[in-house]
Amino acid sequence: MMxxxxxxxxxxxxxxxxxxxxxxxxxxxxxxxxxxxxxxAWPGVMPVLKGLLGVAPIYWTVCTIEVFTYAPMLGSGGxxxxxxxxNITNLKAPAAINAMQAADVKPGSEKGEAIxxxxxxxxxxxxxxxxxxxxxxxxxxxxxxxxPVLQPAFKNILPALFGALxxxxxxxxxxxxxxxxxxxxVLFIAVPSLANSVSVLVPVGALISIGAARILYKKGMx
Amino acid sequence: MDFxxxxxxxxxxxxxxxxxxxxxxxxxxxxxxxxxxLGISGDAIKKTIVSSAVFAILPSVSILLGLITLSYSLxxxxxxxxxxxxxxxxxxxxxxxxxxxxxxxxxxxPVSNPAAFSTVAWVMTLGCITPLxxxxxxxxxxxxxxxxxQKKDNRWGDLFLTAMFLGMIAAFLGMGxxxxxxxxxxxxxxxxxxxxxxxxxxxxxxxxLENFALPISMLGAMxxxxxYANVLPAELLK
Lengths: 222, 238
Known about the structure:
The structure holds two protein chains of two kinds. By secondary structure, chain A is an all-alpha fold. Chain A is built from nine helices and no strands. Chain A has two domains: 139 residues, no CATH class; 69 residues, no CATH class. The two termini of chain B are 33 Å apart. Chain B folds into two domains: 128 residues, no CATH class; 70 residues, no CATH class. By secondary structure, chain B is mainly α. The longest helix of chain B has 33 residues.
């Protein structure tokens, strides 16, 4: 009897989870569609594909692996919600794990699933509210953000991000990082105009890096 | 009125926000009911809600700071929409850069026409859409035990992912190094601030900093770039 309620509850989660997730997918696609209709500005297929070339091979792989990694940890309900609202590694997963530890329930158990879903739902609401409040506040400050004094700051947003990310990743894996870094730096210094084709060079960099990592791995050097 | 910050864009943002909150409330209520059925006390459920809410504040402010760094080029509403659903600065910024590059435009300047703007929105959306397709189709199976397969040779799997990210970082670092002295100085500053944050977190055990290391490094380096631009002679910065 108990087993049957468990089963039907699981089935129920998958049913409404799927409905919400497909709705979220439609909503997310409607954002660019409605922008195109409203501004009467449809992008060409080529620029979108070329842009995607720079991010999709990496992020599709990462996102897929994230699903396999976090789904067993977060439980079904938690997974259906967390992957709509994002920020899983830095927010949803730690919040869910903390909550399960505090409530003394195990990940993967039924109680764990309930607690994890409650934690993920709460963090999603808090993040959404804080972002909305922040946007309202900063909308008032827009003229300040656009002042010429701040221009150098916004013009250097990419080095500001990748300097910080670089330190984290390179310090942990400097052996793997060495080859792609050298190749890319030499390439960009030799041909500075490549700065306009960075979206093509990202997959190239990734392939070089994966190749280097595989060789080091096979030789037992990493 | 700038199209990037038009009322229409804010309306979409509001709609997305309401969707996310509605879905979260639905799951929250369902899970709380289920928890009670399973014998979890109302008190424990309340505690979970309160502690998760508190836990979420710092990372959320950190996400907000990332949103602001994107706002110069893309306006406020689009980054707001993207960061309210799947997405993080570390993804949205490369995605926007790749999209604008494909059009011969640049993330360092405000996007000037709606066609480029919608291209950015499409790339941001499609570049990380996979979970929304995989999960409805396969989650049931994944939860059924398929995930065990993945554990085979996990070390190479981890290394593979890291290598992919390193490839991306190498490409963007190469671009940063070739973009002039100001770019190089910003890069070094950001790396240095991140290094200091890392030491404070690991050696001095300043836990709260962990959440803020990335936005602090980014905003700190961006602030320093203003200083460099004003202090260094113009001919050096060309």
